Amino acid sequence: MEKIAYKLVVSDNPRECFIKINKENIEEFLGAPIFESKRIYSDTPPGVVIGLAYNGYGGGILFIEATKASTSKQSDSSKGSLRVTGSLGEVMKESSSIA
């Protein structure tokens, strides 16, 4: 309503100003659509953690999955390692290491 009132105020002739809201201009009045994400797991299984990410549209939920992998060089007494891929910031790299 504020945006409609503003259009009337700045109009040269507000008495003849007709504003129609339709699907072509609804985003102008309501803003960008809100994105919803579906939950993948009803109960988070072992090896999966939930992380949060933020971006220009607000943010989202990330499901970070881990699995045990072995190589022929790895012995039973070795600790293993963590490899993260993608364009991760320092906070995500730190969180992955801690997890």
Keywords summarizing the entry:
99 residues; alpha+beta; two-stranded antiparallel sheet; 3 helices
- The Rg value, from CA coordinates, equals 25 Å
How far apart lie the N and C ends?
47 Å
Give the domain tally: 2
Unreliable stretches, pLDDT < 50, 5 or more residues?
Answer: none
- Main structural class: alpha+beta
User: What would the principal axes of the Cα set say about the shape?
Assistant: rod-shaped
Number of helices: 3
Bin the helical content.
Answer: 10-25%
Largest sheet: 2 strands, antiparallel
Spatially, the strands of the biggest sheet line up as: 1-2
N to C succession of SSEs: HHEEH
What is the number of E strands?
2
Strand content: 5-15%
Average residue-wise pLDDT: 78
Secondary-structure map:
Elements: H1 2-10, H2 26-30, E1 48-53, E2 60-65, H3 90-98
Antiparallel strand pairs: 1-2
